[in-house]
Amino acid sequence: MDKKTFSIVFFWVGENISIPTFLVNSIKIVMGDKTKVVQLTNLDTEKVPGVTSVQRFNLSDDIMIARLQAYAKFENETDYNFYCDADCVFINKLSLPNDNKNIFISPRQNDFIIDFTYPEFYEEFIDKTANQVMPYLFGALATKGDQKEFFNKLLNICLDLPKRFHRWYGDQYALFLLTKDNLEYYGILDPFIYQHVINERQSTYYLETIQRNKVQMLHFKGPDSKFLLESAIEFLEKKS
Q1: Tens-place pLDDT, residues 50-90
Q2: Per-domain residue ranges of the chain
Q3: Mean pLDDT for the stretch of residues 6-25
Q4: If 0-12 CB within 10 Å is exposed, 13-18 middle and 19+ buried, where does residue 110 land?
Q5: How far apart are CA 69 and CA 132, in angstroms?
Q6: pLDDT digits (tens, 9 = 90+) for 153-211
Q7: Which of these, 237, 239, 170, 162, lies nearest to 208 by C-alpha position?
Q8: CATH class of the domain defined by 6-239
Q9: Residues 22, 229: contact at Cβ < 8 Å?
Q10: Alpha carbon of 186 to those of 2, 72, 148, 172, 189: distances in Å?
C-alpha cells in the first residue's frame, strides 16, 4: 500500500462486544493509536473500545442482509478501506497490493465438500465443494475509494436469493455470483497473508514463524475462537 490514508472497517451487532474488542486491541498493538478503525453496526450495539468512529444504521434482523446493508451505507473517509471479520487479529501492519485494481477479494485457503444440510437445507450446494459455489471469503475485502455500488450490487443479489441465504452464506454466495464472469476486474488478496485461518491453538513458535513470514491477519474459526483470540492477544502483548 502506498502512503495514502486507509481505514480498517468491521461489522458487529449484539450485546457481547468481547470478540471485536480483541480485533481493535490487536490493531492498536501492531499499528498504533493513529490507525483509523471504523465500527459498522445497528442502532443499539455498544461502541467497541478503541475504535475511531462508529457508523450506525437501521439494519435488517437477518445477519447476512444486515452486513451488506452496513457496507453499502458506509460513508468512506479515506483513500483505502480494508473490511474484515470481527473474529480476527492483526499480527503485522496492514499493507495492501499496490496495483490498478479498485476492489480486492480473498480466495479460500482450503477446499472441502459442503454439508448441504447444515445449518439448513441448501439445494444449491448438493455434491458441491466450497470452491465451486463460494470460492471467495467475506472475511477480508479491500477497496480503493467509495465502492457503494459494489456493495449495493451484492446486497441486491442477496435480497433476491431464498430467505435462508439471508441468514447464512448469503454474502459469500452473492460475491461468487457477482464476480464469476468478470474476475479480471478484481485484485486478489493472498488468504495466507490477509486472513490466515486458525482453528486450533498454535504454539508460540508457529505464531512467531508466520509473523516473520509477513502474515498480516489471523482469522479464527470454530467453537474455541474466543479462547484463540485471547491467546493471540497475549502473544502480541508479550512481543510488543
Answers
A1: 999 999 999 999 999 999 999 999 999 899 999 999 999 99
A2: 6-239
A3: 97
A4: exposed
A5: 26
A6: 999 999 999 999 999 999 999 999 999 999 999 999 999 999 999 988 888 999 999 99
A7: 239
A8: alpha beta
A9: yes
A10: 19, 18, 15, 15, 10
